[in-house]
Amino acid sequence: MAQLTVQLGGTLQSYAGGQKTFQVEASNIREMLTRLGQQVPALKAVLDRGVAVAVDGQIIREAWFHPLTAGNEIFLLPKLAGG
Amino acid sequence: MPLDNPPAKRSFKTVGTRPLRPDGLDKVTGRARFGADATAPGLLVGRILRSPHAHAKIKSIDISKALALQGVKAVVTSADFADRTDGLRDVLVNVMARDKALYEGHAVAAVAASTAEVARKALKLIKVDYEVLPHVTDVDEAMKPGAPVLHDDMFTKGVEPAPTKASNIALRCEFGHGDVEAGFKQAAVILEDSFKTEATHQGYIEPHACLANIAADGQGELWCCTQGHFMVRDTCAQLLGIEVSKLRVTASEIGGGFGGKTTVFIEPVACALSKKAGRPVKIVMTRDEVFKASGPTSSASMDVKIGVSKDGRITAASATLRYQGGAFAGSPVEMGAMCAFACYDLENVKVVGYDVVCNRPKQAAYRAPGAPMAAFAVESIMDSLAKKIGLDPIDFRLKNAAKEGTKSSYGPTFGPIGLVETLQACKAHKNYAAKLGKNQGRGVSSGFWFNFGGQTCVSLNVNIDGTVGLSVGTPDIGGSRASMSLMAAEELGIAYEQVKTIIADTASLGYNDVTDGSRVTFASGLATIHAARDAIKKLCARAAKTWGIPEDAVVWEAGHAKPAGKNAGEFEPLSLAEIAATVGNTGGPVAGHCEFNAENAGPAFASHVVDVEVDPATGRTTVLRYLIAQDAGKAIHPTYVEGQFQGGAAQGVGWALNEEYIYGADGKLQNAGFLDYRVPVCSDLPMIDTVIVEVPNPGHPYGVRGVGEASIVPPLAAVANAVSDAVGIRLPQVPLSPPRVLAALTKDGRNAKS
Amino acid sequence: MSGVHVSTTVNGDALEFVCDADETLLDALRNRLGLTGAKEGCGTGDCGACSVMLDGRLVCSCLVLGAEAEGRKVETIEGMADGEALHPLQQKFLEHAALQCGICTPGFLVAAKSLLERNADPSEHEVRFWLAGNLCRCTGYDKIVRAVLDAAAEMRKG
User: Fold this and answer.
1) Residue A77 and residue B412: Cβ atoms within 8 Å?
2) Hey, are the CB atoms on B682 and C77 less than 8 Å from each other?
3) By Cβ atoms counted within 10 A, which residue in B282, B320, B421, C157 is the most buried?
4) B469: β partners
5) A76 with A12: CB under 8 angstroms?
6) Mean per-residue pLDDT for A14-19?
7) Coarse DSSP helix, strand, coil percentages of chain B, rounded to the nearest 5 percent
8) Measuring CA to CA, how many Å separate B203 from each of B330, B558, B575, B679?
């Protein structure tokens, strides 16, 4: 379990009362999203609809169990779709 | 998935060569079977009745006369599809209108009949009682208070507190960091302007087509042209209320998609008709239907403001993007907002986006969805700024270019990326030094696309003669079977010709996400590499058994199992073919598999330089030279990488110069055909020069990045900047069709007559 | 609607079919004769995907009636190769990767063949204008033009 700094993209911030970063204890993406939803109930519905997670600049769209460590830059983005 | 070897300077034997594609022969001889080429015993013709109104309440539908017509075997309306409340509701309502027709061309009923003639007659006998409602097709009009509201339950998301009044604004989004107001105060020069782009269509030459054969118990098969047959299966099964396992979907050869075939339109209708009629049903859209009732792009209205210091560093950048995405929420405005400034290293940046609904067909993805419009606005201002401060446009971009370690405008920090290298490649190219004549101009633009991975599953089967069958689940829209075969051959150490790649149907392979987001060469390719390594492990184990030595004492080199060293024993290497010949005796078939979520796709950047000549008498623009430099990470099949670059650029030139959805005051599309919706033809374009830049993606063992989409991001601005350079006027709206350019020249008092 | 009986020659074979009076040659080829190499991209003569030769003249088969094939010679993509031997244009389209999705390819090949029959040494400009009636959305035409020029050069060598 690592102490993670999670940053929210602008749209997500509006659901979190404008707060940009959160400290979350988790070891993978699923845990991080679950804990974040618990900490910020207003975000939960948005997180459940699906978000993409950028870990050190690489976008992870789906993988729950992607490991996260304290040094990671973690950025939540809206769900993405391509052509 | 952890990587066992870094993508640094490694040498390749097969990857990077340019062999013929495995499906090529079928495609040059007319044998390849596309969506409309299938038939079946007892086949019925399916046709869809569509709304003639842009916005209307459907008061009633009387199908009795159609049903009574001889030869009519089934009629379906929305009553044949159970309503839903989940994420598929918009898909369902788009496939078949329920209480309202939301755009001209919205499906309201469908028939299956013995012949096309009977089907046509039957459609005329269906009586729909409409109450015509006021409509809106322009994005800025749709946002105004008092505009006709499409959905009385649409309350703008992303706004706190949530609005209590319904509107056409589905979502407000925002991205950025720093303090743009403070940044603009530091600027020596600030430029701002408003821009518009029109809706365009992907323009694939093959209209949507499918053949459904569903029995009364729900078991059946569906043949269709799609970018994702697993998506089609799952969506149709859910909309029809049948189990996913009962529906087997085969992807036909696909005659272009570009994002437009990443959703369903006619497929659930064909399934419902077939189930009801108890016979196979084929539906093929007409071109008119493709334009009116598939998924074109958003049109956009945008404001951009950028400030720079005296030495050309951007101090702040802001934008507001308004994208209409047709009759349902989901325009790609969030992606547009994230891509808008992604090329630049910015301390202060803010982008606000609005997702707006209009009485137009629901937009579908189109190559880097959302990005080309935003890039058009941003790169136009960048061009004006470079001129204003007297910097070469490439040097100005290089001064501000995002690179490894840059905090991107949308948040995360970039890993290794190749924007700088694409700009340098453009600057070094001979096109950039070519002399320009009278009425000629040069434009530069850069562009960004995320690139995706996604759910992927492949199977690799070793055959008795030492050849390999590779089954992938991502439809091949541009030569990907060749790329997959190349990667499998590279790993296995065998010849390209010994690997045969096919697109497996939904019953033969695990789930695969659609072919989208430039993901296939990356994701299916990565899965292919893992499956090949899985097979190699098994092949080595068979050699170990044959030699009576431990499995870990065997290595795979150049297509052969070999003892790992002197201590492992002295054995003649066994080739893949030799091991394959005895698999029946050594433990049964050998196959390699991979099922995974491909992540770490690695973003793509492209820079384009275009030279044009504008005829001052007619306003017509001719493209003289076109140069593309794009980061492919590692080009698996360079010829097809070039093809993706060139194709994206050509589509972008169309978007920039001619293509647009033109609506009348009646809310109806006025140019639903290739005569009036003019895509670039052969005589419109020059040769398109390409430079493949290779900055390896650390998320792939060969360094692959997707290449399919980034190439359509720069052209709108590159062409507009070139036209602006040629005529000396900034034109903030595409397409730069001759009448629009001529009007601007006339207004400026500088057309030929003046 | 009563059918029209049509006797015609397709790719050198004498064939007969019955079609509706208002049925296009394209539909007759595809649905009556099973020759699905010609494609319908628009149905209005704008895209060229249905290109065939009718008595040696390049036509959009979506703009010709099936009944008009009576007593005439039709050539389609299916007749372009000689057994296992590809026509040089087909071979060059493969080598130059002049196709991505391949839906427009039959039309381009038929149209390009008709060009080279009239002009053995076309310029790039002539190739581009001759093929301007065929739409390709994938390639940007670069590799198609190169393939046609290369095929022409090879055919001139004999």
Assistant:
1) yes
2) no
3) B282
4) B461, B500
5) yes
6) 84
7) 30, 25, 45
8) 21, 44, 47, 8
Q: Point out the residue among B20, B32, B675 whose CB comes nearest to the CB of C102.
A: B32
**Interface contact C137-B28, CB threshold 8 A:** no
Q: Token digits for B488? A: 């499998």
Q: Which C residues in the span 53-72 are in contact with B, Cβ-Cβ below 8 Å?
A: none
Q: What integer pLDDT is reported at residue B308 of this predicted model?
A: 98
- Taking contacts as CB-CB distances below 8 angstroms, the residues of chain C near B652 are none
CB atoms within 10 A of CB C71: 10
Does any CB of chain A come closer than 8 Å to the CB of residue B175?
A: yes
**Is the pTM here over 0.90, yes or no?**
yes
All residue ranges of chain B with pLDDT < 50 are 1-4, 752-754
Interface mutation target, options B201, B290, B682, chain C, most CBs of C under 10 Å: B682
CA dihedral B373, B376, B377, B382 (to 10 degrees): 150
Residue by residue, DSSP assigns B409-476 as TTSSBP-S--HHHHHHHHHHSGGGGPPP-TTEEEEEEEEEE----EEEEEEEEE-TTS-EEEEE-S--
Look at the block and give the residue holding tokens 């094939």: C69
CA distances from A58 to B219, B323, B469, B637, C88 (A): 41, 27, 32, 24, 46
Cα atoms in the 13 Å half-sphere on the side-chain side of C36? 15
Q: The dihedral of CA B59, B64, B70, B73: what is its sign?
A: positive
What is the rounded distance in angstroms from the CA atom of residue B720 to the CA atom of residue B704? Answer: 31
- A touches B (3+ CB pairs < 8 Å)? yes
Helix (H) or strand (E) holding B299: strand B299-308
CB B376 within 8 A of CB B409: no
Residue where the block lists tokens 């459940």: A48
Among B30, B646, B679, the residue with its CB nearest the CB of C135 is B679
- Residue B244: which residues within 8 A CB-CB, separation 6 or more? B233, B234, B237, B238
Residues of B in contact with C141 (CB under 8 A): 650, 680, 682, 685
Give me the pLDDT at residue B7, please.
Answer: 55
Query: Is A68 within 8 Å of A28 (Cβ atoms)?
Result: yes
List of residues 6+ apart from B560 with CB closer than 8 A: B493, B573, B574, B575, B576
Q: C92-113: per-residue pLDDT in tens?
A: 999 999 999 999 999 999 999 9
The residue to which tokens 């992606």 are assigned: B335
DSSP A61: S
- Give the per-residue pLDDT at B753: 38
Interface contact C138-B256, CB threshold 8 A: yes
For B207, list phi and psi in degrees, rounded to 5.
-65, 155
pLDDT tens for residues B94-134? 999 999 999 999 999 999 999 999 999 999 999 999 999 99
Cβ-based neighbour number of residue C156 at 10 Å: 10
**Residues 665-694 (B) with a CB less than 8 A from some CB of C:** 673-675, 679-685, 687-688
d(CA C50, CA C72): 18
Cross-chain residue pair C97–B643, CB shorter than 8 Å: yes
Give the pLDDT confidence of A40-74 residue by residue, as tens digits: 998 998 898 888 899 998 888 888 899 999 999 99
- Select from B38, B353, B47, B305 the least CA-distant residue to B190: B305
Residue C106 CA from chain centroid, whole number: 5
CA distance A26 to chain B (A): 19
Amino acid identity of residue C2, one-letter, is S
Backbone angles phi, psi at A37, to 5 degrees: -65, -35
Beta bridge partner(s), residue B344: B401
Q: Residue A1 pLDDT more than 50? A: yes
Roughly what angle, to the nearest 10 degrees, separates helices C105-118 and C142-157?
40
